[in-house]
Amino acid sequence: xxxxxxxxxxxxxxxxxxxxxxxxxxxxxLPGSPLKxxxxxxxxxxxxxxxxxxxxxxxxxxxxxxxxxxxxxxLFALNWGNSYSKRxxxxxxxxxxxxxxxLLAGSNMxxxxxxxxxxxxxxxxxxKKKKDLSLVISTTILDSIPSFxxxxxxLAVFGVKFGWFPIYGAYSMWENxxxxxxxxxxxxxxxxxxxxxxxxxxxxxxxTSRYSVLQILNEDYVKLAKMRGIPKGRITVWYxxxxxxxxxxxxxxxxxxxxxxxxxxxxxxxxxPGLGTLMQEAVKARDYPLIQYTxxxxxxxxxxxLFLSDVLYDRIDPRLEVQEDE
Amino acid sequence: MKKKYFQQILSVMMMAAxxxxxxxxxxxxxxxxxVSPGTSEPTAEAAGSVDxxxxxxxxxxxxxxPFTYVSGTGLTVNRLVYDTLMTTDAEDEIIPWxxxxxxxxxxxxxxxxxxxxxxxxxxxxxxxxxxIKFSFEYPSSQKVSGQRKQCDKVESIEVIDENTVKFVxxxxxxxxxxxxxxxxxxxxxxxxxxxxxxASISDSIGSGMYKLVEYKxxxxxxxxxxxxxxxxxxxxxxxxxxxxxxxTAIQQGLLSSQLAASTGSIGIEMIDTFxxxxxxxxxxxxxxxxxxxxxxxxxxxxxxxxxxxxxxxxMDVNTICKTLYGEHAxxxxxxxxxxxxxxxxxGLEYVYDTAKAVELLEGLGYTEQKDGIRLxxxxxxxxxxxxxxxxNDLRSRACxxxxxxxxxxxxxxxxxxxxxxxxxxxxxxxxxxxxxRDYDLSTWxxxxxxxxxxxxxxCSSDFAAGNYNVCGYVSEKFDKLVxxxxxxxxxxxxxxxxxxxxxxxIAEEVPLITIAYADTxxxxxxxxxxxxxxxxxxxxxxxxxxxxxx
Lengths: 326, 550
Prior knowledge:
A: MetI-like fold; 75% helix; B: alpha+beta; Dipeptide-binding Protein, domain 3
């Protein structure tokens, strides 16, 4: 293992340790108490002794360092316990929600990357023409629309007015679809939230791609290729688009970090049972274990994405590896 | 031209989305009543027999069991699954439910009930007097139970025969019919016997009119009517309850007939929208949850009765109530309870009199002013903070109105908006009034103002009894009345007399300002089902909406 790789690994290790520590202390620094979640409806009805008894049962009266050791023990033993507010095993809660979030946010990432990049490139090739200008204006307008507002409008128009789409859930809860029908049903429920997310997150890929293509089109090797009479399609794909990949890929990997938590508003408006809303509910309820483990998962995913991008950069653009070695 | 391109792009995107989703699929869904997407007209159903209703529940309340639900919403819905010995009707009167009408009450301390015939739990076990005994004893063994306080009030429970049970309370409690017998959910002892933690039971087995057949965390509940329910077969066979926390989504669901009703309420601004829709009815149920302006009685200058009175005279409570709720609220009074309750003291209405407020303030020495704001003896501005919950638009609006009105009498108010837990930590640290408080003013609300012990919980300085005294009010007069008379109350008339006296004291000393009792506005689709029943302090999702009272 060379120094560069060792250094890189050590950076990630420090990051993971920092996240594990921060994930414990951050929820506990929030004002308020998890007592309400633990007790249920009427915490004011309990005597002080009863309240202390409840907090004792969850080690919440122990010194902070002791609570931290319990946290480390449970974390590494994969015994994540029950949520204070949901009264259910945290692993079950996370597993049941993660799939839907990955479907929604993952589909959005792929579609917005592909569509945004393609539109950006298409626009760049038509620079200063009316089509280019129209696209730039359109994407700017779409980007300026708040996602929740767009969601509400789409819900009102396509869910209520036309009745084309269901207004809540990730699937028809009251039907037992199987096979192909189930897939269609899931896609039917996915359509509006996904469309909202794609439309409101296109802009960054559009501008990045457009700017990169414009820059590359002015490179000498592209001009030379044109002079050599290399077919236009080949130049577009192999000379231009391939080199556009690095900034687009960077943007894509940055978005991976938001995969699990970035769709809270959309999940809320469309009642989509994802991890984003679970994290939000956990914070509201001061549900310490649920906050810890959901945020830990999101943080680890971000680190994994960073790591993956580090590895893949070298493959996508070997010049980066050379620069680093130098 | 630009517009044309913009439209083209949008069209392409929508087309792609539709192709992806196969929205032309002929798959039918049972939603709302009997409606499918794309069908604007729901199938009308009489109250007689409806197969399925879809009713949104605004919170995930776990398994709905008495040891797992987390809020008042859960309590509302679990009443369909779990029965109680007594219940409240549409007039908020307490009536027998599981028991015969000829129950005995001796000095509000001993209660003897006989169970009605034919009651069964959802697992088939009969409901017996032993189950009743168990249901009032088990919560006391639980660390986490909202029912524990009421169960702890019971001295002994005697099973006289299979259907008869006698309760003896530790102390006479005139309010136990409401707080205890109408609240404690009846459990099957065979399910919970020997279980240390009641919350660990994943099945929700009650003896109510609906059984919980499926619950998916964060997604939905499915309830099914108990055909042989002892008070008759419920009129709706299946109730599907998606968990939808977003108000906008619920309103869209109601408008599109994908939902028949919701456990949540709407604001007055939405009334016209829903009333304009054919088949939608807005029910306006008188509420018992007051909007209150808490005053920190322990902090100067709020520790002076005259200063608190000046605040009351300087606030136009009627205008605030009208502005916030229109005709859909009852304005608060100095007596701190609803003025239409039988034991409400007359003549305690707030009087908006800025001249009187100014006179009181000047009498306290607050004569100097700077930029229209009065100065205290040390030359500091009379400026205070009012804490309110973020996201609660009505309370924020109330704060703005209070701010404007108090400025007229030379008091500056700064609005501090915080998330609920943060605000609670200042107002009600650790939910224990004995832990003090750190605020000047705050907007607040309770849900139990129809309880006979509400005023005592709110104002007693004995924090065991005054467990809701978040204002830190200490009054010799009030405490003396409670100490001398409460324990000797032997009839409803005596209790009402005491409550009237307590209201008079509160009105004189103004520990807090009760602004309004808002009606609960709920929307129901009456084309799908017309059996909805509304009532005082009642959510429209209540037992009487599905079985007749008699």
